[in-house]
Amino acid sequence: MTTRRKKIYEGKAKILYEGPEPGTLIQYFKDDATAFNGEKKAQLEGKGVINNRISEYVMTRLNGIGVQNHFIRRLNLREQLIKEVEIIPLEVVVRNIAAGSIATRLGLPEGQALPRSIIEFYYKDDKLNDPMVSEEHITAFNWAATQEIDDMMATALRVNDYLSGLFSGVGITLVDFKIEFGRIYEGDFSRIILADEISPDSCRLWDSLTNEKLDKDRFRRDLGNVIESYTEVARRLGIMKEMPTVIQGGVH
Fold it and tell me: How far apart (Å, rounded) are the C-alpha atoms in residues 173 and 169?
């Protein structure tokens, strides 16, 4: 099927194909793992399958609490049907605990709880290494309007509250995460909805007791057991019961 479909876009971890009806797309999850803006690459067998399932689970739960997003339904192991949106060229990052670039930038010890949840915006451009931008930049360059920024921030905090509780309930700490948003048009009006994916590729997830990393940092930092850790997240969430507990392959 995939070969006959019209490819709309290919990113580092996903491919978007033309959907079966207007206003829809098919999102295909690849096994490709990349870090440092594509400088480090690998094929992790089964990663796309796990991320498809975790993202389906999270997006369905978020829909259930009124956080509108692009997810319609999962089609198979690697694909889901989604609403076509006009992606806003921003990555919205919510941080609860110091890790990654904020620890480096501000000289914070990794694992230090932040005074409150912090929202950061990054301009989506791999060639520029996704630079951090302010609300001033966003409105000046017309990437999003002030009301849209407010909507994105409010949604990001709702997602953070919900996911923090969801993961905490299965012994996982939500350290930080990245989300993206898109516009859906209804006549002359547009509204902002959550898009892209939510998975261990886009979240930092630590075991609540040991602080063991269960996310993409295992790949970034050559910690090994990447697929096993992603599978463990799915297992704790109670999904993918029909699959082997560990998918063989990946980075060891």
Answer: 9
- What pTM does this model have? 0.93
Q: How far apart are the C-alpha atoms of 228 and 247, rounded to whole Å? A: 7
Helix, strand, coil shares, percent, the chain, to 5? 30, 35, 40
pLDDT tens readout for residues 157-205: 999 999 999 999 999 999 999 999 999 998 899 999 999 999 999 999 9
Phi, psi of 231 (to 5 degrees): -65, -35
Residue 23 token pair: 């206003």
Domains 7-85+224-236 and 87-207 share a fold: no
Tens digit of each residue's pLDDT (9 = 90 or more) over 45-84: 999 999 999 999 999 999 999 999 999 999 999 999 999 9
Q: Where in the chain are the domains?
A: 7-85+224-236, 87-207
pLDDT at 240: 73
Distance CA 31, CA 113 (A): 32
Class of domain 7-85+224-236: alpha beta
- Classify 175 as helix, strand or coil: strand
Q: What is the dotted CATH code of the domain comprising 87-207?
A: 3.30.470.20
Which residue, among 163, 167, 158, has the nearest Cα to 234 in the 3D structure?
A: 167
